[in-house]
């Protein structure tokens, strides 16, 4: 199994609407602060989520499931993302939306399986022979291309590495030059090169350069201690899905025939059940040997009522397997028909036997003053200025429609305010955009009133 080249396949999260959420905002004893971590009110749900975070951290939650249930716009998605923030980036958190399983190309269960494996981490601890230090020089040596033709090729790279104890100059293979470039290594960076695989890892910028640029979003690391050439404990955090992908790639040689073979193969190599089983076997062996440690993360399935009976059954089965993440569901539905059945209704649109094994956290509608605070925080994160009366108006709008609708009105309202030649949003701007853009409720009433004018 390849673990050296494993690239992380964590997906970019779309959390723009929740960018103000930084955590659950609990105090040391686990009680919710009135306003904390960007979250306002909803204290029971936040405290419950806090307990879940503790359980996850102490690894007592694997294979269990949680359901966030409540009306639209009551912060279910926000709380789930706050859980992710509290867990930090060492615990995998994989968000998905129920409807993602419907694709014409991939089986529904395959989508779920992939996300399941994205949410299970593996921390691999290995002692490796490495060359480590701050880069003091980086010179590619060029020669004429031996194959003829124009241009030059790189015959080797000379790299200088410095530690607190000494310096060393290494002459490296050109293939390492590529990995150096991929990691964007420059003079002044702290890196290590694995001796037997040649894999390069950039750890950060040496902190002797820390005062050089203030605005950089760089991670500064101290100059490594000890010799340049040494044994080092390397810790890698990967997910099972990362391992699947790394080992599923077509693995041909450099000769012409296998290159041709690769061209014939479909672009997307399939991850088969057999490959997954092989990987599980190796992973289990590593765990037994104490090299690796399993880190069950969180699979977050938003809008879970979009799943159908087939996927629910599959989920239920997967939750029973020995390697399972914690699954967090969210839904805003009350009793409704389970998808994929003709007439079986059930609370939250989930089959009763699955519902029976989840812990349910309720989210409740906000009071007007809580909504005012949320709007204030949101306006701040978006860098918008609002008059106090405008905030009151908007929270009233949120009371009639939903909080989400109100939050979404902020940007158009700012546009309106600019058009009117102002910089601070006033109540009139909000009333204007409220008239221009309907919320779901008003649009629905509009439809029922004028139903005969539409095509049916
Ligand atoms: N307690 C809170 N504190 C701060 N912001 C909140 C809070 N609750 C909700 N929000 C913000 O309000 C907006 C709507 O909330 P969110 O999307 O989490 O609702 P939801 O319960 O997931 O709704 P739906 O059922 O429609 O998916 C988001 O921008 C969210 O970040
Ligand atoms: Mg949501």
Automatic annotation (TrEMBL):
The keyword Cytoplasm does not apply. Keywords: ATP-binding, Cell cycle, Cell division, Chromatin regulator, DNA damage, DNA recombination, DNA repair, Helicase, Hydrolase, Nucleotide-binding, Nucleus, Transcription, Transcription regulation. Its EC number is 3.6.4.12. One of its GO terms (biological process) is positive regulation of DNA-templated transcription. Residues 62-365 form the AAA+ ATPase domain. It is found in: Nucleus. It catalyses: ATP + H2O = ADP + phosphate + H(+). InterPro entries: AAA+_ATPase, P-loop_NTPase, RuvB-like, RuvB-like_C, RuvBL1/2_DNA/RNA_bd_dom, TIP49_P-loop. Signal peptide: none annotated. GO terms for molecular function: ATP binding; DNA helicase activity; hydrolase activity; transcription coregulator activity. Belongs to the RuvB family. Proposed core component of the chromatin remodeling Ino80 complex which is involved in transcriptional regulation, DNA replication and probably DNA repair. Acts as a transcriptional coactivator in Wg signaling caused by altered arm signaling. Pont and rept interfere antagonistically with nuclear arm signaling function, and are required to enhance or reduce arm activity, respectively. Also an essential cofactor for the normal function of Myc; required for cellular proliferation and growth. This is RuvB-like helicase. It comes from Hermetia illucens (Black soldier fly).
């Amino acid at each position: 199994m390849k673990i050296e080249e494993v690239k992380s396949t964590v997906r970019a999260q779309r959390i723009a609407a929740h960018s103000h959420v930084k955590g659950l905002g609990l105090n040391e004893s686990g009680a919710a602060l009135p306003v904390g971590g960007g979250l306002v009110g909803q204290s029971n749900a936040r405290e419950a989520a806090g307990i879940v975070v503790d359980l996850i951290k102490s690894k007592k939650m694997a294979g269990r499931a949680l359901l966030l249930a409540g009306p639209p716009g009551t912060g279910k998605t926000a709380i789930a993302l706050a859980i992710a923030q509290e867990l930090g980036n060492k615990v995998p958190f994989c968000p998905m939306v129920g409807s993602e399983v419907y694709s014409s190309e991939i089986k529904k269960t395959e989508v779920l399986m992939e996300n399941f494996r994205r949410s299970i981490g593996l921390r691999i601890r290995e002692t490796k022979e490495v060359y480590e230090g701050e880069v003091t020089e980086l010179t590619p040596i060029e020669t004429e291309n031996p194959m003829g033709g124009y241009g030059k090729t790189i015959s080797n790279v000379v790299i200088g590495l410095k530690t607190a104890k000494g310096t060393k100059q290494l002459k490296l293979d050109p293939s390492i030059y590529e990995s150096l470039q991929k990691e964007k290594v420059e003079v002044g960076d702290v890196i290590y090169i694995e001796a037997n695989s040649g894999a390069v890892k950039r750890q950060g910028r040496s902190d002797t350069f820390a005062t050089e640029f203030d605005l950089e979003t760089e991670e500064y690391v101290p100059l490594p201690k000890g010799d340049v050439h040494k044994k080092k404990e390397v810790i890698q955090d990967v997910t099972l899905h990362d391992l699947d992908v790394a080992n599923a790639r077509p693995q041909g040689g450099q000769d012409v025939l296998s290159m041709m073979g690769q061209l014939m193969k479909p672009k997307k190599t399939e991850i088969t059940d057999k490959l997954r089983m092989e990987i599980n076997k190796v992973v289990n062996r590593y765990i037994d040997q104490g090299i690796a440690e399993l880190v069950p993360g969180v699979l977050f399935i938003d809008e879970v009522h979009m799943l159908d009976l087939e996927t629910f059954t599959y989920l239920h089965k997967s939750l029973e397997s020995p390697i399972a993440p914690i699954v967090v569901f969210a839904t805003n539905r009350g009793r409704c028909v389970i998808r994929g059945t003709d007439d079986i209704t059930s609370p939250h649109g989930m089959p009763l036997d699955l519902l029976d094994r989840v812990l349910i956290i309720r989210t409740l509608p906000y009071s007007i003053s809580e909504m005012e605070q949320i709007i204030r925080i949101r306006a701040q994160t978006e860098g918008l200025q609002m008059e106090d009366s405008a905030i009151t108006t908007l929270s009233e709008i949120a009371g009639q429609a939903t909080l989400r609708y109100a939050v979404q009105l902020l940007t158009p309202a700012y546009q309106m305010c600019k058009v009117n030649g102002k910089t601070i949003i006033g109540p009139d701007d909000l009333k204007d955009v409220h008239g221009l853009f309907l919320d779901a409720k008003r649009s629905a009433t509009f439809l029922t009133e004028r139903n005969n004018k539409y095509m049916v």
